[in-house]
Amino acid sequence: MHTKANALAQGFIRCHDCGCLVKTVDHPSACPRCDSQLHPRRPHSLQRTTAFLFSSFFLYIPANIFPIMTVNQFGAGDPHTIAGGIIELIDSGMIPIGLLVLVASILVPSSKLIGITLLLLCAHFRWQINARRWTVMYRVIAFVGRWSMLDIFMISILVDLVNSGSVQIIAGPAATAFAAVVILTMFAAENFDPRLLWDNQQNL
Amino acid sequence: MNSTNYDSCPECDLLLRSAHPKIGEKAHCPRCGFLLSRPRKQSVERTFALSIAGFILFFPANLLPMVGITILGNANTGILMSGVIALFNEGMVAVAIVVFLASILFPLVHISLSLLISGHLYFNRPNRYLVGWMRWMHHLDEWVMLEVYMLGIIVACVKLMAIAPLKFGWGLYAFIALIIITTMLTSGLDTELFWQRIEQLGKENNLAH
């Protein structure tokens, strides 16, 4: 079902690492320029992306219901979830920072999960879509993923600095789950091959 | 074998005649809009210079205190590594490792690799490891999260300012300079040019023997 304009249909494979084109008639297994393994498309793209996606879906639940950090003040503990921390920031008048954290740690991960799910469904069921628009969506998903690590870095700074006898910040179990979600969705996006979207289009 | 006059778009696999945009021009894929190439002025020289600067700045950024805070008379200063250690001591080993990799080890490896690669290209020295270094750098790119860490510092400081007075140290300024340099480094690096130069160096080396 490859369209004529595709390099693969014309007998070329593009190297993932250095980007050079190699003719398939020579049956090469490694790139002549950088010696990395050649694959016409990312190997097992849909299976791997699905696996990473499912793992991150399941970890997304503990990441949101457990406390991501606990503020101990004079012996009294005050646990915060991800959403709780944002509400507190907005309540105390720090609206721009609150919105920034809202985007980075709630909107980005959840829209990434939904977006990758849609991309997978589209590639698997060969939906006839506006492939250009979907490729842009993939590009955005792949770009914004790393910015969700903001929360994790912020916690590492807070945990380190607020550590006197009477006031203490302790990282909670959600931090591990959230870091895992961010990394797994990054792996999922990296393993998804947007060219699969184009391969399935019949009317190009 | 590989030096065809064709290219293909990495995101939609459209077969294209190789575009050779001039400096300051960009080549986009006509079908999906992907930025195919964007040649940079003196890419090798600039990468080499920025890598040296970045490599030097890496040490003050990591060793000098970044932010100091005084809570109820207790003074405390933080550097990149002390955050990792604090997480580790609390038993958050996995998170500590992730923070260590994304904010300390990967940036160091990335900048060392770009220093090695651009240095070899600048002095026209062939090296059989160049190809491997280039591939490693390509894969590490996404996992260097210094600018994300910077946002983390900003948010943490805004939160802490409400509790106690903060003091910013030289480490923070070095860190900001390091981020500016790494950003200029990644945006000024012409990957295609680097690969071509590496291939050329390898061929010259084979002919010489």
Explain what you see.
- The complex is a heterodimer of chains A (204) and B (209).
- Chain A has 204 residues and is mainly alpha-helical.
- Chain A has two domains: 40 residues, no CATH class; 156 residues, Up-down Bundle (Butyryl-CoA Dehydrogenase, subunit A, domain 3), CATH 1.20.140.
- Chain A has seven helices and five strands; from the N terminus they run ββαββααααβαα.
- The termini of chain A are close together.
- The relative contact order of chain A is 0.18.
- In chain B, helix 1 packs antiparallel against helix 6 and helix 3 packs across helix 4.
- The interface between A and B is large, with 69 and 63 residues.
Question: How many helices of chain A does DSSP assign?
Answer: 7
Oligomer state of the chains in this structure = heterodimer
The overall pLDDT of chain B, averaged over residues, is: 90
Kindly report the greatest chain-chain contact and the residue count on each side.
A-B, 69 and 63 residues
Write the element-wise H/E pattern of chain A from the N-terminal end onward.
Answer: EEHEEHHHHEHH
Strand-helix topology:
The complex is a heterodimer of chains A (204) and B (209).
Chain A: E1 12-14, E2 21-23, H1 45-65, E3 69-73, E4 76-80, H2 82-91, H3 95-125, H4 131-144, H5 150-161, E5 167-171, H6 173-191, H7 195-199
Antiparallel strand pairs in A: 1-2, 3-4, 3-5
Helix pairs in contact in A: 1-3, 1-6, 2-3, 3-4, 3-6
Chain B: E1 6-8, E2 15-17, E3 27-28, E4 35-37, H1 43-63, E5 67-71, E6 74-78, H2 80-89, H3 93-122, H4 130-140, H5 146-161, E7 166-168, H6 170-188, H7 191-208
Antiparallel strand pairs in B: 1-2, 3-4, 5-6, 5-7
Helix pairs in contact in B: 1-3, 1-6, 2-3, 3-4
Task: Write a concise keyword list for the protein shown above.
heterodimer; A: 204 residues; Butyryl-CoA Dehydrogenase, subunit A, domain 3; 2 domains; 3-stranded antiparallel sheet; two-stranded antiparallel sheet; B: 209 residues; mainly alpha; two-stranded antiparallel ribbon; 7 helices; elongated
